[in-house]
Amino acid sequence: MASTSQPLRGKRACKKIFWAVFPHACFILSLVIYAFLGALMFSHIEGNRKVNLSEEYRKFLQNLWYISRNLSDNMTENEEIFKDKIHALLNTAERDWFVNPKDIWTFFGSLFFCCTVFTTVGYGNTYPVTRIGKYLCMLYALFGIPLMFLVLTDMGDILATVLSKSYNEFKKLQSKILASKLCSGSTCNKEDELKSRAQSKVAINEPLTIMELLNIRPGVKRKPIKYRNAEIFEMLIAREKEHTKLARNRSIERWSSCPELDRGKTMSRVIENFDKIGKQLEKFDVPIVLMVLVIFVYISCAAAILPNWETRLDFQEAFYFCFITLTTIGFGDTQLEHPKFFLFFSLYIIIGMEIVFIAFKLGQDRLIGLYKKVISFCGEKKMPSKNIHPK
């Protein structure tokens, strides 16, 4: 029996873990599939579009040729011409005149564009040009942004739980160290022994004996023998019924040959897991300085790794780029030479956005608390003082 019960327990534990992880995996998988479908769609629409060289492009080439003919050997004069004429001419140029759309809208380039859309970063380096692409971009963002925020909220719960538990464990360890320094060894050992004895007394739901019932209900002893025996008998029967009912409920829970009950319980657990999304963020309470430190360390790690393939960026530029990305500002002033390598960094972006999201939520709670204190303080100051005069 012991050998057969162990595999059953292992299967039940695996099922519990699976159904606990299922909502989180479902959200992440939905976002990944959504990103891949968007990449296929935009690479097909924007990458296969035909570039028609308009009359403006021909005028641009004629003006550029005319300016180049008037260049002289004097470098100072050429600089003045460049500042006045060539700079104004280059501002009228369009990117489609010099870049092939297929080079921009590859699968990885389109995937990078989709990630910048539903994460609301929007660097502005890659954007749809066709009318159909613009309409589909709006529709894609309309469904992708809520899905991304749902993933951020869900993963934020996990991070909030991990950070809060780590912080609480650190506080417990700190209090234990301080307590061990303050209290003497003998008194602390006695208190620990008393606590361990109190914790070792576990209430077990078993049928009570006659002597235990008489000890619990001392008033029964004072009654006549006839009534006393009848009351003891009724108490024992009631206690036995409660015990059999508990045992039956436990057997139903552990019974593995009833798929209907098991299916109903697993479905209710999955629904409860969906209902619990965002609850841990509401309970999250750690010092704001700690969150700022976590963000600084997190961005610094990425800023040290990113220049390995983006050779134009140093540590400071990479730090700036990561901060602008994780806060979803996305100016687009820093362009990446290898965006497909940065896509492998997408897990870093999602986790980093969650950390920043948690920090913003924490700062929002602190600001609300500050506003409440200021308003209550101003309200107390404006309240007129009541002078009570005795009659």
Automatic annotation (TrEMBL):
Residues 103-159, 294-364 form the Potassium channel domain. GO terms for cellular component: plasma membrane. The chain crosses the membrane at residues 21-45, 104-123, 135-153, 286-306, 318-336, 342-363. The keyword Membrane applies. Its main location: membrane. It is found in: Membrane. It comes from the Eukaryota. SUPFAM superfamilies: Voltage-gated potassium channels. Belongs to the two pore domain potassium channel (TC 1.A.1.8) family. This is KCNKI protein. It comes from Nycticryphes semicollaris. The gene is Kcnk18.
